[in-house]
Design goal:
By secondary structure, the chain is of the alpha/beta class. It has two domains: 7-200 and 365-384, Rossmann fold (3-Layer(aba) Sandwich), CATH 3.40.50.2000; 211-353, Rossmann fold (3-Layer(aba) Sandwich), CATH 3.40.50. Helices cover 37% and strands 17% of the residues. It has helices at 19-34, 83-100, 118-130, 153-164, 179-182, 224-236, 253-261, 276-281, 292-301, 317-327, 341-353, 367-384, and strands at residues 7-12, 37-42, 57-59, 64-65, 73-74, 104-108, 136-142, 167-171, 193-195, 211-216, 243-246, 267-270, 283-288, 305-307, 332-333. It has a seven-stranded parallel beta sheet, with helices on both faces. Helix 1 crosses helix 12 (367-384), helix 2 (83-100) packs parallel to helix 3 and helix 6 (224-236) packs across helix 11 (341-353). The longest helix has 18 residues, at 83-100. The chain is globular, with a radius of gyration of 21 Å. The protein starts with 6 loop residues before the first strand and ends with a helix.
Amino acid sequence: MTPKAPSVFFYVQHLLGIGHLARASRVARAMIVRGMDVTLVTGGLPVPGFPGPGIPHIALPPIAVADGAFAGLVTATGQPADEAYLEARKNQLLAAYHAAKPDIVMIEAFPFGRRQVRFELLPLIDAIDATQPRPALVTSLRDILQCRSKPGRDKETVALIRRAFDLVLVHGDPSFAALEDSFALADQITDRIAYSGLVCPPAPPSSEESFDVVVSAGGGAAGKHLITAAVGAARLLPDLPRWCIITGPNLPQPDYDRLGENLPANVSLVRFRSDLASLMTGARLSVSQAGYNTVADILMAGCHALLVPYAVDGETEQTDRAERLERIGRVGVIAEAALSDVSLATAIRHEIARDLPAQALQISVDGAAQSAEILWALAKAKRQG
């Protein structure tokens, strides 16, 4: 009799951008390719194209945050998510878990982040603990974490990891950024940590289009400043005649309309390009924020890049990632606080003239497939143990 394929119940909650959902979708796809049964549970606003065809998907009633301060949860209509709404979400999540009967439950970010959804994740952990046989519990983390602003949170995280979690799966390469670099108490959970390498897309095909500058702002919810400065910089650099500026699907429509009213002649403005990584291969320079997935695209495209890390409301993660790449000469960086039409135009001019390092960057980039292998081995060990 053929053994049942390992099953994974994978929870991901995106609140502002789409990076968490994009990475989780790639990992889910790799697990399915490996032969695992996957249920991907999402709780954010719908994003066209994600999680993608062939990935079994449960969408909880959506929640988001109103702004980059991550204060207060709202529904898809922008109204505050009240107690009844959140209770219904929690109950739907628990019912989906019990129906799935998984070998592994994987939760993206929590308890290192996503405290806003502990109202449903702590009950989920209680349900896991009450299940016999108990499934393995894994947290799925990006390579660099946000620095804590409140004392005691790291200790709480460690206590919950040691009590309830079997594995901390870090989607990064420790030679570039180890967990202890952004989480001070990582030495207390060393026995739980595994690294998958960066979760990157396949190397993109070469683009048939060529641009001097491709500007992208991820999901767009937090990229208005960058996009506005880019339009101004293009006006100051008419000798660079081909610009593609991609606002992201979540830039508010009034902002998008205002940008389009008086565009410079050298700018093509669009909301979304599914072939962004391919476009990068045909660009003299990519200008973007420094989110996990955008940097993955840059590395796979092999393109010249200028990063403007998102740093509003005390955010540190993108700045840390950008500065690590800048120190080894792979990218240029301009701080968001210094961003203007003029400063961006100056940085673009400088970066286009600079040579990239001759030596290729040595970072493991097959994190999706490696995550699947790590989880397959965990499920096998759990069944034998």
